[in-house]
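Working notes for the structural subgroup meeting. M.R. asked for a predicted model of this chain before we commit to crystallization trials. I am recording the input and output together here so anyone reviewing the notebook later can reproduce the run.

Input as submitted:
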Amino acid sequence: MLTNDAMSAEAAADVYDRWRQQAPVHRTATPDGSPVWVVTRYADVRALLADPRLSLDKTHSRNGYTGFALPAALDANLLNLDPPDHTRLRRLVTQVFTVRRVEQFRPAIQGHVERLLADINPRQVTDLVTALAAPLPLAMIGDILGVEQLDHMRTWTDSLLVPGAHQPYTPRQAITVMERYLRALIADRRGAPDRSLVSALIAAGDGDDRLTDDELTSLVFLLIWAGYETTIDAIGTCVLALLQRPDLLARLHHHPADVPVAIEEMLRLAGPTPLSIRRFATEEMTVGGTRIAAGDTIMLLIASANRDPAIFDRPSAARIDRAPNPHLAFGHGVHHCLGAPLARLELHAAVGALADRYPAMALAIPEEQLSWRPSFRARGLTELPVLLEPGAVGA
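Returned structure, recorded in token form:
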């Protein structure tokens, strides 16, 4: 069964290696018991990420997939649609989410990083999730939406990701509150357009084609979900991977121009989404010699593909000279992550600033004591206690 038992990245990599060596495709189940095929090898994973015979539309499921059901106003997003609906929405959104527009966020990102690091006392143990990894993407989502106060956002997403009696909302309540908030935000921007991405999405068009209210609500929901929670996980796991390699951390301190290529290696080795979102076979197909029936659920083990020795020389090593680096951390094909450029900007700013200021930073607790979010598809730390200046703590 697919589970997340908080094993280290290297221990997980050993499992991926065994799965990949044993077979290209495995039959298993998600934690709720839904049967699923898991694909392990790079060539198959990359090909299937772009294969039109695999659908993201849950109506194609025929063999027991359940998953979490969203209301219609949040479900019509790019992660649940296939062409031609996906093509139409992506065309409209791409008009707004251009490289030029994303690049304009660079000064704001740098400013948020500097502000957040200035609030840290390096002489104390610091939880980098609370101090940097979480507030940075939250601040950027606020900039993107044109909203100053978004402290409640983490409460909503936590209630969805880690439900339980300790949360102020049930998952269903959190969804209801988020939908109500997003609809009100969109209505406000319709009446008073500003320079935010929400206003740009409202104005985006292709001839007479415009985004409907449900499509707008779903897209903004996806921006929050993918641009916030996934980026928190990416910052945390990339910084941890760097802490596990103090020689690389020291190199980045002395050679900051290497930060971008180091980020790509950290994403390859410890990306925040080991497993792709579920897909459904629209027809009978054969993968790695295994027959998969129409309607079956398929998940692609990106973490395994990214360490496939058939593609990556010395796949467990973090190599600054790895070029090209065709990792799949942001996907591939028509569903390649639209927010990848923004995520990279945030990662470069956060990791670059930490390497510059604190080249000797280290974990404050043994690695086996780190706490991970309970998720079989995502990999994210709940906290990352570090000693930024190990010799100064407690002095």
